[in-house]
Amino acid sequence: MAKDPLGEAGLHFDELNKLRVLEPEVDQKTRELKEECEDFVDKISQFQNVVGGLIELVDELAKEAETEKMKAIGARNLLKSVAKQREAQQQQLQALIAEKKMQLERYRIEYEALSKVEAEQKEFIEQFILQK
């Protein structure tokens, strides 16, 4: 078989009989690699879009969780303050009850004293009437 003088010089003909510097096999592999690289870049771009959307979703959920957490803390604090208010009100009412009991006792003692005075005055009046 005769040697291909163009092949030895690094020149080759393709399927359309165009003169090429690269061997047809190398050219074909280069084109395949280029297509694979383009597919890879497209897939990476899609992946970045998906990850970006996921990050946005996670950020939104984190904000919602933080909002709910703040609401829960506010509700808990409100419940604590209501409990303290009830406790203070209960203490005030107990103090008022004690005060009213003391007042009742004073009125009872005063009533007994007035009843005694009334009885003494009635007895005095009866004795005074009987003396006349």
TrEMBL record:
One Pfam family this sequence matches: IFT20
Main subcellular location: other
InterPro entries per the UniProt record, alphabetical: FT20
Coiled coil start-end: 79-117
Cellular localization per UniProt: Cell projection, Cilium
Keyword flag Zinc-finger: no
Record's keyword annotation contains Transmembrane helix: no
Keyword set, alphabetical order: Cell projection, Coiled coil
Gene Ontology, cellular component aspect: centrosome; ciliary basal body; ciliary base; cytoplasm; intraciliary transport particle; neuron projection; non-motile cilium
Superkingdom field: Eukaryota
Sequence intervals crossing the membrane: none
Single biological process term from Gene Ontology: cilium assembly
Name this protein carries in UniProt: Intraflagellar transport protein 20 homolog
UniProt lineage: Eukaryota, Metazoa, Chordata, Craniata, Vertebrata
Gene designation per UniProt: LOC120018052
